[in-house]
Amino acid sequence: MSMLDGAAAPRAVPRLVSDGCAEHLAVAAGWRRLAELVRRDAELRLHLALRPPHDLSADLGDGPQPPHPRASDQVRIVSLAALLDRRATDERTLLEQVIANQHEPMDALDFVVEHFVRPVVAVWRALLDRHGLVLLDLGADSVRFELTPGVRATGRVVVTDVAGLREAADVDALDVDRAARALHGALSTLAAGFQQASFDGRQYKGRAVRAAVESVLAAELRYLTPETADLLRGDHPLDRHVHSVPEEQDRLLREVLRRVEESSAARRRDPSLPAPAVVIDLDLCGLVPKARTLHAARTLAGPREGAPQGIPELARPDTLRALPSYSKPAWDRFLEVSGVAGRYPNVEWDDVHAEFCPAFYRPWERLRSDSLAPGLVRFVRDVEDAGGEVVFNTGRRDRVREHTTAVLARGGLNHVRLLTLPDDRVRPIAELKVENLRRLGGLDVVAVFDDLTENRQVLRDSFPAAMVIAVEAPGFASDRVPGCPPPDGAPLIATFERLPRQAGGSTPALSHTHSIAELQVSELSVGLPARGHAVNLSVAQTLSVIDRLVAEADASAQRTAAAAPGHLRSALSTVSDPLERTVLLLHHVFMRKQFHRGSRATYTPEMARNDLMPFLRRDAPIQVVVPGFPVKQSQSGLKASGVLPDLAELGVLVRLRELQQTVKCLYKPGLRITVLTDGHHFRPRPAVIVESYLRKLNQYLRLVGGQDFLEFADIDDVARRKIGSSLDSERIVLIEYYQNAFRKAFEELDIASDPMGVLSRVPLLDPMAEHTPGGLAFRDMFRSILHSVALDVPAGKDRMSWARAVYADPYQLADPATPTEIVRARKQVLRQAWSDTVRYLSAVLTDRELGYDALFEHRVRLTVSMPSPGRVGFAALGGSALLPWHGTAAIDEKGTLSTDFAIWLYDQGFVPVYSPVLGYRQPWLMAPVTSTAVVDSARGAQLVPELLDGIHLRRK
After folding, report:
1. Can you name the residues that pair with 863 across neighbouring β-strands?
2. What is the predicted pLDDT for the residue at 937?
3. Interatomic CA distance for residues 805 and 260, integer angstroms
4. Which of 104-108, 612-616, 630-634 has the lowest mean pLDDT?
5. Which parts of 411-517 fold into alpha helices (H)?
6. Each residue's pLDDT tens digit, 661-690
7. Which of 176, 217, 456, 688 keeps 20 to 30 A from 403, CA to CA?
8. 3-class DSSP assignment, residue 153
9. How far is CA 462 from the centre of its chain?
10. In angstroms, how far is CA 725 from the centroid of its own chain?
């Protein structure tokens, strides 16, 4: 049934309209529904345009809707066939012209993938996966693309007829097969046409073109909803790419990571606590023995008693509903699920199982054919980044450690602790697994993953506080009855994969992460077509945004100050000294949600009294010191697109103004805020970058009216005034001394040879353990700095796309499938991050030696990091732990100003918003494409008025 038939059906009433009129109304309803989807779904908005019939143009608009910012009324709509048509041998095809006309030089194959291939697949998938619509007709004449009058690609597919859209609930297997083959056929036609084209004399090999297309299909058909994945399973070319991760699996794995972080944080506060650990079994859990299983099954397929003609099902095990397992309970379930026991009732299946096990395990060399469970490598990395340790606790014997380690090494996991059992073991495996774990000592077992019920039960009894999770490898039988929970009631996962973004979300959303390492960058879109939807603010619009932020901050300051005595009525009633009352009021202000982050226990009223009284007694401005604003971390392009401060930094200055105005309402002298910048201090950087960043900050400071109470001061300039002219020479000597100490401690380590193995050894050698016990650690700082290293981008490669490939797994150097140039780039990044970490920590130790912490005798110390005792945690923009200089300014659909990573914003459908205050090489902020509109084609895209007028700081 067409989506048109889904319009509200009339009840059995007398016919008031003709059949033709009813059909017209249904068509109009279908177009309106599709227009609404495009309006509110960011991905469709970027990749899909609608050209309804002329008789609906008054209602839905004329020409492709919504209008593209770079296309005027003369926009061209061309079919796939027309795009590839070469009317004469000496003429260029439209596709060749489009690629020649691109704005920035880019590899032709990369360009066609991002502007033609991906939009087709993304629209097809989004309509199906999020909105339940199947796009059936995708022939060479029906697939249409939008081009600008200058023959440039917009990256949008154009729908000119809704008759080919069907409700997913109403299609059958034949319809799905037809739709899948049509999509694959259209892409194959495009690939073949591209392969025959020539670009500056260069032609691309068919294998490379097909691989690029298949790569897009694999990426776009990952993380489908389970319902969509079930619908798409079939005997068609897309089947091999269909992939899904249940939301419950994602929730369980995130909960494990949350508990690891919680345990790790507790251990940082109290180093005597045990280290958090996640325990993972291997066979049919962390490792998938598919090749061994297929081999073992085939060896059992020959004639035997009860099956004189053999068991052909075992000869073709990949056609079975589920593969057999070495575990007897799972083997019995396999017999039931596959139906082979019923078809061969006279076979002694226990004997077959007895033959299966040695065929499965031997020769031991076959163990090397195992593969890592999907998502395992990433999950191990995430556990380690959260401060935990993964332990592989297997029932395998010592004699196969070498074979097992070889498989783990392919994923860069040979550093993970591997517990095996004695070759001569006779006791139950579960008991020995518990013994192995207890023998380690000093571990807080947060979670246990195992495929066998008996193992889980014993481990749960031994570690009652741990999450015990069942694993059922896809395609294998287990002891679980299909459709029922595991026998022990354990929660169940199939793989170690997590969702890279919120399931089912079509509205642009922020990531709410504090580290880019938390993002699965390899799964995110770099948003090349989104860059063509950029918004350009005028000077008046820019100043209006700033003025409104300042006015709202001042009004909020007055409200906060006016409410303060009421909040402290009880405490103030017992205090008569005016200065003591002021201390309580100002402490209350520092703790307000719009200003404060972290635990209130780190800055008590008593601490505030010690800091404030020297100023209150003199009726002088209170000295406030806050470190920050080093430089914009734009080295890779994944965090930010340029080196200058954007609206996020300006927003922090507005917040500091709000703090000042609030304090002045209660204490007239107010604050004197010194922002200690450290652009050169920890890591040497080009002077032009640091100076341009600071110059723009001072311009922002004037725009928000903060120059009378706030100053930016380089931390080393302040130190020279306090410590003396000998500072520079002393710093050079001390930094070199500490750098040599790190080099000597790590002289046998090469981060570019075995990254994870080296990092596992670092804590045993780290000089920081001696100088700052329980404080900064080399490994943690290295992981942080790793994502802020400059990249050398090859010619013709998009910067963000290249960085995404490098940072997909920067520790993976051993996978033969990884291109050589990517491995080389990763090694460069690892070595540079190692060197930068040595320099950074050497500067930290030097600061401590020279007394940098005591540069100001009396002051209130704000910190944008999690506060330690005696410091006030400052929330900056609030709502996100991500600091403005670590990301890109962004507003959500309500206008709330925040910070997020550039690659995440592009993936979510945010588009760049440029302003004259920053120029046109770097966005001033990013905004949801669904909150933009083209009203005047001469001006391009604009923020919708309600969003532009509603940009505001978060109140808590």
Report:
1. 873
2. 77
3. 28
4. 104-108
5. 429-440, 453-462
6. 999 999 999 999 999 999 989 998 999 999
7. 456
8. strand
9. 36
10. 46
The closest alpha carbon to 819, from 211, 404, 72, 334, belongs to 211
1: exposed, middle or buried (Cβ count in 10 Å: 0-12, 13-18, 19+): exposed
DSSP 363: S
591 within 8 A of 695, measured Cβ to Cβ: no
Are 202 and 107 spatial neighbours (Cβ–Cβ below 8 Å)?
no
Give the helix ranges, DSSP H, for 794-819: 799-807
Q: What are the respective helix, strand and coil percentages of the chain, to the nearest 5?
A: 50, 15, 40
Provide the pairing of β-strand 48-50 with 144-147. Answer: unpaired
**Cα–Cα distance for residue pair 4/31, rounded to 1 Å:** 9
Identify whether the C-beta of residue 333 lies closer than 8 Å to the C-beta of residue 478: yes
Residues 6+ apart with CB under 8 A from 841: 738, 742, 768, 776, 778, 781
pLDDT of amino acid 584: 97
d(CA 785, CA 780): 9
* Rounded Cα distance, 763 and 769, in Å: 8
Nearest by Cα to 483 from 379, 648, 333: 333
How many angstroms separate the CA atoms of 811 and 10, rounded?
Answer: 61
Dig out the tokens for 268 from the structure: 């940082």
Tokens representing residue 291 in the block = 């090749």
User: For residue 803, what are the CA distances in angstroms to 777, 789, 806?
Assistant: 26, 10, 5
Strands (E), 800-948: 860-863, 872-873, 888-891, 897-900, 910-914, 925-928, 932-933, 942-943
- Please name each of the domains of the chain with its CATH number: 3-241 (no CATH), 247-286+370-493 (3.40.50.1000), 292-361 (no CATH), 529-724+856-948 (no CATH), 729-852 (no CATH)
Residues 38 and 54: their CA atoms lie apart, in Å, by: 19
Taking the C-alpha atoms of residue 96 and residue 112, their distance in angstroms, rounded to an integer, is 10
Tokens (6 digits) for 483 = 């459709």
Q: State the DSSP code for 149.
A: T
pLDDT band at 774 (very low <50, low <70, confident <90, very high): low
How many residues make up the chain in this entry? 956
**Residue 13 in this model has a pLDDT that exceeds 60:** no
SS3 620: coil
User: The tokens of 8 are what?
Assistant: 């509200």
Whether 267 has a pLDDT exceeding 80, the answer reads: yes
- 72, 77, 82, 88 alpha-carbon torsion, rounded to 10°: -20
Count the Cβ atoms, other than its own, within 10 Å of residue 174.
9
Contact 4, 30 (CB under 8 A): yes
Residue 596 corresponds to which amino acid? H
Looking at residue 409, its pLDDT comes to 93
Phi, psi angle pair for 535, to nearest 5°: -105, 140
What is the torsion angle, in degrees rounded to the nearest 10, for the CA atoms of residue 413, residue 415, residue 417 and residue 418? 60
Query: How is 737-748 classified by DSSP, letter by letter?
Result: HHHHHHHHHTTT
C-alpha separations of 849 from 839, 854, 862, 868 in Å: 15, 11, 22, 19
Q: Cα–Cα distance between 332 and 477 in angstroms, integer?
A: 9
**Tokens in use for 169?**
């609930």
The pairing of strands 287-288 and 371-372 is: antiparallel
Please give the Cα distance from 388 to 444 (Å, whole number): 9
At 240-259, the pLDDT tens digits run: 999 999 999 999 999 999 99
Q: Specify which residues 596 forms β-bridges with.
A: 874
β-strand partners of 625:
674, 861
Q: Which pLDDT value is given to residue 14? A: 55
Question: Would you call 918 helix, strand, or coil by DSSP?
Answer: coil
pLDDT band (50, 70, 90) for residue 161: confident
Three-state DSSP string of 532-574 = HHCEECCHHHHHHHHHHHHHHHHHHHHHHHHHHHHHCHHHHCC
Chain centroid offset of residue 151 CA = 34
